[in-house]
């Protein structure tokens, strides 16, 4: 198999696997929580997006890695971290939910932009060096959790109360 095909297959299978994990293990627990409490684990997970700064470290990535991609990915992730942490700090207030909306829109657009920039720049998987696992493992997880966050943000609080009432007791 060619390296670009291996890269594509890795991303595709990672999306499928994280989707299964989300459906089977993450969503059942989050759906029973109040909106602000359900957002906390997702926002906390995204506070690790600083790993995107590794795209800027010579020796970790190939010197041939296109700078249009590296700068968009690294600084977009850094902004996503700041927004996730701001959201966490402001929750459970309404300002925290508003910040979570901003974070979630920004974060998802940032991931899509990174894929666009990589494609437009003709990125080759080998240029990623040690960061190969960011787009093949971490990005699909971030993408899936953005979708979960939208689901949480879009639901009515009455749905949360009903789910909480129907959830089996942990006593």
Helix proportion: over 70%
List segments where confidence is low: pLDDT < 50 over at least 5 consecutive residues. Answer: none
Number of strands: 0
Strand content: under 5%
Order of helices and strands: HHHHHH
Task: Identify the notable features of this structure and list them briefly.
171 residues; globular; 0% strand
Give a written overview of the molecule.
It is a single chain. This protein has 171 residues and is mostly helical. It has a domain at 47-156. The chain contains six helices and no strands. Helix 1 (3-30) packs parallel to helix 5 (133-154). The longest helix has 28 residues, at 3-30. It is globular. The N and C termini lie far apart (52 Å). The model has no long low-confidence stretch (mean pLDDT 93).
What's this model, at a glance?
With 171 residues, the protein is mostly helical. It has helices at 3-30, 35-46, 67-90, 94-120, 133-154, 157-166.
Structural topology:
Layout: H1 3-30, H2 35-46, H3 67-90, H4 94-120, H5 133-154, H6 157-166
Helix pairs in contact: 1-5, 2-3, 2-5, 3-4, 4-5
């Amino acid at each position: 198999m060619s390296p670009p095909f291996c890269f594509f297959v890795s991303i595709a299978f990672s999306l499928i696997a994280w989707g299964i994990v989300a459906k089977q293990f993450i969503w059942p627990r989050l759906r029973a929580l109040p909106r602000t409490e359900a957002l906390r684990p997702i926002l906390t997970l995204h506070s690790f997006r600083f790993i995107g700064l590794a795209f800027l470290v010579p020796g970790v990535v190939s010197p041939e890695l296109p700078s249009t991609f590296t700068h968009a990915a690294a600084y977009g992730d850094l902004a996503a971290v700041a927004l996730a942490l701001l959201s966490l700090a402001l929750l459970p207030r309404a300002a925290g939910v508003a910040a979570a909306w901003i974070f979630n829109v920004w974060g998802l657009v940032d991931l899509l932009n990174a894929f666009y920039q990589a494609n437009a720049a003709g990125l080759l998987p080998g240029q990623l060096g040690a960061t190969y696992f960011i787009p093949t493992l971490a990005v699909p997880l971030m993408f899936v959790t953005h979708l979960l966050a939208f689901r949480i943000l879009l639901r009515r609080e009455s749905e949360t109360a009903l789910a909480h009432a129907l959830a089996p007791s942990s006593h």
